[in-house]
Hints:
The complex is a heterodimer. Chain A is 30% helix and 25% strand. Chain A is α+β, with helices and mostly antiparallel strands. Among the domains of chain A are: 15-129 and 142-192 and 320-342 and 413-478, no CATH class; 348-410, 2-Layer Sandwich (Dna Ligase, domain 1). In chain A, strands 5, 6, 7, 15, 20, 21, 22, 23 and 24 form a nine-stranded mixed sheet that branches. Chain A has a four-stranded parallel sheet with strand order 9-8-13-14. Chain A has a four-stranded antiparallel sheet with strand order 16-19-17-18, with helices on one face. In chain A, β8 (223-226), α9 (235-245) and β9 (249-250) form a beta-alpha-beta unit. Chain A is globular, with a radius of gyration of 23 Å. Chain B is built from 15 helices and no strands. Chain B has helices spanning 3-34, 42-51, 56-62, 68-76, 85-98, 105-119, 126-150, 155-188, 193-206, 210-217, 223-232, 240-254, 265-277, 281-284, 288-311. Chain B is globular. Classes of the chains: A alpha+beta, B mainly alpha. Chain A binds chain B through residues 52-55, 225, 230, 235, 239, 242-243, 248-251, 253-254, 264-268, and chain B through 1-6, 94, 97-98, 100-103, 105, 108-109, 112-113, 116, 155, 159, 254, 310-311.
Amino acid sequence: MVQYPLIDGILDEVFVRERQARPIYQKILDRFNIFNDSDVRKLSDYAKVSFFNQGITFNVYSEKDKGVERIFPFDIFPRIIPGSEWEKIEYGLLQRNTAINHFIWDLYHEKKILREGVVPSELVFTSRYYDKYMLDFDPVGKIYTHVVGTDLIKHSDGEYYVLEDNLRCPSGVSYVISNREAMKRLFSDLFFEYHIKTVTDYTQQLLETIHSVAPYNISQPNCVVLTPGSFNSAYFEHTFLAQSMGIPLVEGRDLFVENRQVFMKTVLGPKKVDVIYRRVDDEFIDPFAYRPDSLLGIPGLMSAYRSGSVTILNSPGAGVADDKAIYAYIPDIIRYYLNEEPILKNVMTYRCEKDDEFRYVLDNMNNLVIKPVDESGGYGLFIGNKASRKETEECRARIRANRRKYIAQPIMSLSMHSTFIDHENCFEPRHIDLRTFSLMGKDRFFALKGGLTRVALRKGSLVVNSSQGGGSKDTWVIDDLIN
Amino acid sequence: MLSRLANNLFWMGRYLERAEYLARYAQVHYYSALDAPFILPKEDVHASVLKFPGLYDSFTDIYEGFFDKDVLYYLFLDPYNQNSVKHSIQLTRENARSSRDLLLTELWEAINILYHQINNTNQLDIESFDDVAKNVRSSISIINGYIDNTLIHNDVWAILKFGQHIERSYQVARLLAVKWEEIVRGRERNANQAYETYLCITMLRSAEAFDMSRIHFNKIPDANQAILFLLSNHLLPRSVSYNIQKLGENIAILNLMETPVFNDLRFKISRLNSQLHYLVYEDIGGDIRSYLNNLMRHINDLAYIFNKEYLS
């Protein structure tokens, strides 16, 4: 930490000024100061080998690296979130997700919010994820978004802002738990120094959430996790969740529908399935209802779902509310359904389909982040101050061609955090965000304490997604009073 | 349990057993030949090592001559050999990965570590051969320890074990067939008794049954005794009889309440088990080659019916 460079105008979560750490991090720094660079590298390598042996890897399928397995980079410097800050985040998540579920139910039933002009109808009906199969259908407990990944950033004003809501198949929770296991092995003594909230209860909470939305009158539901298969990049997570919950991991080809009921093919014959926690995107889950060329889905699943014989988590059609153009209206949606002010702030968002905002975006592209409304994983992202003239012009043309598809936000100064950089063999500040995970079941809510802190490992980069060169850190929510 | 996962577990068991058997066979044969009671032409040693897994023809299609380095590389690592130790371990791991949610974490990790070790080994010379073979064998022993001592002995375990027992029965029968051919050829050439004893010891060592045979017979058994020992001793975990008997027990776990029906899988296993259990040398009728070929057909038949009844 001797030559740790602070950057003006950006919040560093560890240091207030050179060599002066925030008090909450002091015990960790005291621990790290015992080590020299070689010790730190050894610890970092030990963690990597541990992840590798456990198979916490993803496959690289490029021509050059054919079949090579890589781990998701893990940083040994944990991030700390004080309990008081976390409490506000947790209330905010509950509020936001409650409102989102009211909103989705309304869209597929009465459409009051559209009729009253709070959210423009055309925005909803042109969304790729608006699903006519969900019209007038009531999922158990009226819950659509059972598993939610809400991405937050901490701005230079010290406030958390919601960057986006992931309401379809958010991934990453297995890395939260694996990161914690690695940290317990590397720095067990620090766990006695800090009172860190557990993350290992997530899978039990997920199972209870799944049980809570089983079809009515089924006391011991047969629940499964549906995966696209072992070639999916999140396959490790799918196996991890199924194994941790003790329920079968199935592929589409293991299931079939008969008399509007779903069955799995077992060695002792067909067995009825009651709840499917699917990790397959909407468009692939039923070739009869959606993409007819899908080999990952179960023909007739939606007819079984609509008959009430099986529950699907998350509900098909839930993605209409995480369209990035709808995101801009979430504060209004919270006010409309809950009559409350939003606890978590939104980032100011310009919608290119509106004439005045479209003009503003085109005039200020250098100061904006421009995103397609229906992409995830950092794909299609345009960052104005990093783009070349040619890239800017190309982006301008893309927006003009399809204004509904793009939103723009000011370039937020994501907070930074001290991170061990392998090739530099030292700690340097890197931008971070936080993916939180929350669960909504029938009459229950749970938020995982902390979540996945994602790190943009490239110097100066704001892109934290693992598919774009990001890494992760263990995230410690600690009790302020005790610590 | 899902039929697809049952299929994965069955093949995981088979490939695991196959990898261990091939590593052991190559190691035993290579080192036994070095201090044989007479000078063996190297070609004969290599031909024997390659014939056991049925790789003689495919090897000679690719390589010219029989150099130690080439033979060992081909058996263990060559990507063009679909029956190499490396390929069997890759398939063990791939099948385990697909059924990972049913397996113990430590079991999966042990398989994954072995996979990465062998996957990162791209060269094999005479000096490193012993270490690689030993590592494969000891890692698989650890994996087998996890399978038997930590998994619940339910349908998951039973299917995995069924794959292992089928593979082991078949490998032992095949080993006997290959070795019997060599014994017959030796007799035709009027080779001395030391040669037959050498083949017999190699055969028993290849099945990891040499020490037990000495304890059982209080001497080194002759060829006929050794063959009968590996076929019908129902207390020897390396015998065909023992493994067929275990197949019956595995199937009983899958069909807890059902009794065998004429010509179904349990019926056929019980029948073969009884035949092996009470086998005497006279039953073979002097034609060991036909007997062993017939036995291998029966074992393959059991695997086929199992596949049809439970895995598809």
